[in-house]
Amino acid sequence: MKNIVVVGAGAAGLASAETLRREGFTGRLTLVGEEPTLPYDRPPLSKHVLAGTWDFTRTLLREKDHYAQLDVELRVGRRAIDLDLPGRTLLLDHDEPLAYDGLVIATGVTPRRLPFGHELDGVHVLRGEQDALRLRAALTGQPRVVVVGAGFLGMEVAAVVSGLGLDVTVVDPLPTPMVRQFGPAIGALIARLHSDHGVQVRTRTGVTDLLGSDGRVTGVQLDDGTVQPADCVLVAIGAAPEVGWLRSSGVQLGNGIQCDEYCQAAPGVYAAGDVASWPSPRYGRRLRLEHRMNATEQGTAAARNLLHGNVEAFDPVPYFWTDQYDVKIQAHGVFPDGARPQVVEGSPASGRFVALYREDGRTVGALGWNSARQVREYRNQLAEGPVSGGAK
Ligand SMILES: Cc1cc2nc3c(=O)[nH]c(=O)nc-3n(C[C@H](O)[C@H](O)[C@H](O)COP(=O)(O)OP(=O)(O)OC[C@H]3O[C@@H](n4cnc5c(N)ncnc54)[C@H](O)[C@@H]3O)c2cc1C
User: Closest residue (by CA) to atom 50 of ligand 1?
Assistant: First the structure.
């Protein structure tokens, strides 16, 4: 193989490029990324960058000269717009063809939007550098903030906003925050954590419209008939795989790029990170994870399999964390619908605990609440053998 292209210059794309060099690839290596910046880390955007304690440059994953040392041709500010699979050629914007022998696709996800209201000033989403800087700037004007969506991103932002002393309300039709990730019991603890910090958590409440005046948002119309006044709205209702540019390529798409267990999507084509779905041998079903650790692990695995010829199935125990106020939640494994957490160390009342999630008599998930070290000790139990049933 003489010429490898990696599309998507985030954590997964960078891990692929570095792995290729580390494992002996000496040919031409190109990293294409739509955003104009060097690859950076997203988790600090909703934490330190939004809080104003980190300058954006601190999120850069590597210094500029690292890419020269790696002998990677960095094409940032360029978007891939089409893929010719039989011709092994990528089409970049301005109709520039880019041939490859091997391709890694790591184009991530894009925030979902409400079907209304995004044209109003003061309505935000949060995925990239520019989103974070815009939202941060909006917070300096003492706005009343409404967060639509009580997933991890919405709750992290609510924590930061309330830490800045601003009024913040979170709205979600589901019964508790983060119920999809961790179920209602942990969700109730997260709701309490936020209420204790003065956040209004309005669960079981949907949004039917965003209201505005003179082009600026003024409120959020709720499905109980009330209006929540707002000068700043963050829409955090999940994200969709960035695959629109592949629609006519013949790459199999579903919930993301449908890879095999080696992260292979087509001859010479692999995918990694938030955009990639693969059949997990361990969990007996397809996974697509939007987790920072997975981006690096899968980027590494995809690069190895591309370079050496499908040497190892990708089969990690997923890992995810979220920071809200002084609470750090670490989650290893999977957290199936209906699996009940059982506290095995500490207690919610003490502010530190480990909870295990079981399914079909097996432990499949371990959650640590301010217990990073303790929860890691349960990780080995999760790494054993395949499990049947659901996984997230
Ligand atoms: C604000 C925020 C906070 C987060 N916090 C946490 C956390 O606390 N814990 C955790 O585990 N995870 C967290 N995550 C998730 C984690 O950051 C992601 O899982 C990870 O960044 C995924 O990396 P990736 O390389 O797959 O995708 P990305 O980082 O999204 O990179 C994909 C890149 O591809 C580019 N691209 C897209 N389409 C094209 C195209 N057609 N051509 C060229 N380039 C393209 C995009 O512009 C982007 O730069 C957070 C995410 C966000 C947004």
Answer: 43
| Residue-level pLDDT at 385 | 52
Residue whose Cα lies nearest atom 26 of ligand 1: it is 273
> Percent of the chain beyond pLDDT 90?
92
The CATH code of domain 3-110+240-308 reads 3.50.50.60
Rounded to 5°, the CA angle 234-240-245 comes to 125
Contact assessment for residue 5 and residue 270, using Cβ atoms and an 8 Å cutoff: no
pLDDT in tens, 203-256: 999 999 999 999 999 999 999 999 999 999 999 999 999 999 999 999 999 999
Pocket of ligand 1, candidates 107, 161, 247: which has the most ligand atoms within 8 Å of its Cβ, to mutate?
Answer: 107
Distance (angstroms) between ligand 1 centre and the Cα of 67 equals 19
| Cα within 13 Å of Cα(366), Cβ side | 21
In this predicted structure, the answer to whether residue 390 has a pLDDT above a threshold of 60 is no
Per CATH, is 326-382 categorized as 3.30.390.30? yes
**If you compute the radius of gyration of the chain from its CA atoms, what whole number of angstroms results?**
22
Contact between 305 and 362 (Cβ < 8 Å)? no
- Is the CB of 88 within 6 Å of ligand 1? no
pLDDT tens for residues 104-142? 999 999 999 999 999 999 999 999 999 999 999 999 989
Q: How far is the CA of 40 from the centre of ligand 1 (A)?
A: 9
- Please tell me the class of the 113-237 domain: alpha beta
Domain boundaries, the chain: 3-110+240-308, 113-237, 326-382
pTM, two decimals, is 0.96
Strands 80-84 and 253-254: unpaired
Identical fold, 113-237 and 326-382: no
